Amino acid sequence: MHYRFLDWTRHFIRQLPAALPSSCALCGVSGADSLCQDCNSRFFSQHPHRCSQCASPLAFASDKAERCGNCLSNPPAFDTTIVASDYTAPIDQLVLALKFGNRLALAPLFARMLRDAILREPAFTMPTLLAAVPLGEKRLAERGFNQALEIAKPLARAIAIPLAPQLIERTRDTLMQAMLPTAERHRNIRHAFALPANAVKFVRGQHIGLVDDVLTTGETLNEIAATLKRHGAVRVTNLVFARTPHK
């Protein structure tokens, strides 16, 4: 199943225009930006009312509730989530192109859209330190880069917040969360993260911003947030490019 998924992914990645600075990453039209104005308006102009904690779209735009039912009944360890978009077509193909197609030129685009999402929240409290969700050693060796860190680098510059690239480490390789049933994802990721001894002093009393490409069930981000709070972080905010809508 894992290999069929990768073959399917690579097939769709090949259909995307090359993500060059002179062409739109979605439609390929020539221009100065990596996303043309037409695609930006068509695919990124909707900003639904979201749960303040997990960023899941709430049922009604007029809903005054700040948190969804899931977060109220089973609060996650993280406090807030900001996303730039939902993980739906064709935006999902941009994420796959970065992750599996080595389209690193997309990372600054994701960072810029995350910056814009942050600026749309006037009451948002900025983190004091950024960190990226780490990859396991095996997957990092296979891929050659950590897509979350590639997004975090330009985002840190854009919002003028220091980035700690090695603040969090993955203690063991885990199965790909996307390949697992929802019920198994928590077990797969549990106790998979730790802080190096020399990083603990940078966490205590801080508001940590966690950068990632996609949020699905939130198990990975929840596990990291719990780890950070055990070491004294006072607040954890997720900064994620795309959020998979609940079915």
Describe this entry's structure for a reader.
The relative contact order is 0.16. The chain has helices at 2-15, 37-44, 69-73, 91-101, 106-119, 137-143, 147-159, 182-189, 200-203, 219-230, and strands at residues 80-86, 129-132, 169-170, 193-194, 207-215, 235-243. The protein has 247 residues and is an alpha/beta fold. The strands form two sheets. It has a four-stranded parallel β-sheet with strand order 1-6-5-2. Strands 3-4 form a two-stranded antiparallel ribbon. Mean pLDDT is 87; it is low at 10-21. It is built from ten helices and six strands, in the order H-H-H-E-H-H-E-H-H-E-H-E-H-E-H-E. The two termini are 22 Å apart. Helix 5 packs across helix 7 (147-159). It comes from Herminiimonas fonticola. Residues 19-72 form the Double zinc ribbon domain.
Radius of gyration: 17 Å
Strand order in space, largest sheet: 1-6-5-2
In one word, what is the shape?
globular
* CATH architecture term: 3-Layer(aba) Sandwich
CATH topology: Rossmann fold
* Beta-strand percentage range: 5-15%
Q: Regarding CATH, which class?
A: Alpha Beta
Query: How many angstroms separate the termini?
Result: 22 Å
**Pattern of helices and strands:** HHHEHHEHHEHEHEHE
Mean pLDDT: 87
Q: Give the low-confidence spans.
A: 10-21
Provide the helix percentage.
Answer: 25-40%
Largest sheet report: 4 strands, parallel
Number of domains: 1
Q: Please count the helical segments.
A: 10
Question: Care to count the β-strands?
Answer: 6
Helix and strand content put the structural class at: alpha/beta
